[in-house]
Amino acid sequence: MNYRAVIFDFDGTLADSLGAWKTIWEGLGIRFGRGSGFRPTVREEMTIRTMLLKDAMDYVNGIYSLSGDPGEVLDAANGIIADFYTNRVEQKNGALQCLRALSDRGVPACVATATELEMVKLGVKRLGFGDYLRFIISCADVGKGKDDPAVFFEAAKRLGTAPENTLVVEDSVLALETAKAAGFPVAGVFDFHNLSAQERIRSLCDVYVGEGEGLEKLISE
User: Fold this and answer.
1) At which of 87, 102, 129 does a domain end?
2) β partners of residue 7
């Protein structure tokens, strides 16, 4: 591996957590009288996953009018997510082994996420990643989602590496497109929840961790 540092996404990349969205929609549906089968469209959900949670809940509430008080929707979502990351989230295949190997090689790693920082910290604690990450940065820290490269530039700055020497590891096609266009090498990680985007993701990537493969593949490339 020739990269000097690695920026990981969390959900769907280090953590097998994109199922959290199903849990959120079920919880919100029950809470606001839409039933446990409530769910935005696939297109809406793909947009939502790159947003800050507040923006995502405002977006959903604007479309589906769940509550006259947008803050109520956000509070409900926060409670559902906190429980998920504290008690249910699991790691992606090979995630901990990959982080340990990077640490052993002296390659610094961090997380750059669109998920709320406090929620990711709960997941990192549950999964035992904390000792292997220099820091966690949220899109909220830079005020922009992953349709903008600001969070990747800020992460590289904190790591002390140039974009061209800093690998960005993501499962989202939008985030990969953003990082690639900004001059970062990129690695794509298969996630079942992004199944329809895999061909595009594979075409973008310098490294691709496919279905059934583990993140330790990043070390061997």
Assistant:
1) 87
2) 110, 168
Query: Residues 64, 143: one domain?
Result: no
**Residue (of 131, 105, 63, 117) closest to 219 by Cα position:** 105
Query: Residue for token digits 């992953």?
Result: 146
Shared domain check, 121 and 72? no
Region class of 17: left (phi > 0), else alpha (psi between -120 and 50), else beta: alpha
DSSP 100: H
Over the stretch 8-43, which tens digit does the pLDDT of each residue have?
Answer: 999 999 999 877 888 999 999 999 999 999 999 988
What CATH code is carried by the domain that includes residue 113? 3.40.50.1000
pTM, two decimals, is: 0.86
Which helix (H) or strand (E) segment holds residue 14: the answer is none
